[in-house]
Amino acid sequence: MNTTENEIEKMLISESIDSGTLLKWSKLLEYDFFRIYSQHLILYSPPTSSGSDLIKKRTLKSHLPSFRKNIYTKEIIDFILEQINSGEYTKSEVIEKYGIPKTTLYKWFNKYENQKTKDGFSK
After folding, report:
1. Which Gene3D superfamilies match (predicted)?
2. Residue 90 counted as domain residue
C-alpha cells in the first residue's frame, strides 16, 4: 500500500477513510468493506409512504438511484434475529425501529429457526 506503519495506525483509529483507500484494503484483505455500508443504507432507509403519496412518487421520474427496502441480506437477517434472541430488542421494537413488516419478521423466525434445527443446532 506504500504507506508507513504510523499512517496505517492513523487509518485504523480514524473515524472515516477515503473510498480509494478502503478499496485498497478490501483487495488486500480480500474482504468487501463496502458491503457494510450498503447494508446500512438498506437497513436504515426511510420508511416508504403509502396511499396517494406512493402513487405520486411513482409518477415522478428521478435520475437518482432508488433503494428498495424489501431487500434483506442474510447478514442483516442474522443480525436482527440475533438482537431478538439475545434479548436486546423485542420483536415489536425491531418492527418499529427498522420498519420491517410483522409478517416478514415472523417468516424469518420460522425459516431460520427451522434451518438451525435441521442443521443440528439447538433453538
Report:
1. Homeodomain-like
2. yes
Mean pLDDT value of segment 51-57: 50
Say if residues 54 and 48 touch (Cβ distance below 8 Å): yes
Is residue 61 in some structural domain? yes
Count of the separate structural domains present in the chain? 1
Residue 5 belongs to some domain of the structure: no
In which domain, by residue range, is 46 found? 32-118
DSSP letters spanning 55-102: HHHHHS--SS----TT---HHHHHHHHHHHHTTSS-HHHHHHHH---H
The pLDDT tens digits of the residues spanning 4-27 come to 999 999 998 999 998 899 899 889
The Cα angle at residue 71 between residues 115 and 106, in degrees rounded to 5: 45
The span from the first CA to the last CA of the chain, in angstroms, equals 45
Q: Examine residue 8 and state whether it is found in any structural domain, yes or no.
A: no
pLDDT per residue as tens digits for the range 57-89: 555 555 555 545 557 788 888 888 999 999 999
Predicted TM-score of the model (pTM): 0.44
How far is Cα 45 from Cα 26, in angstroms, rounded to an integer? 25
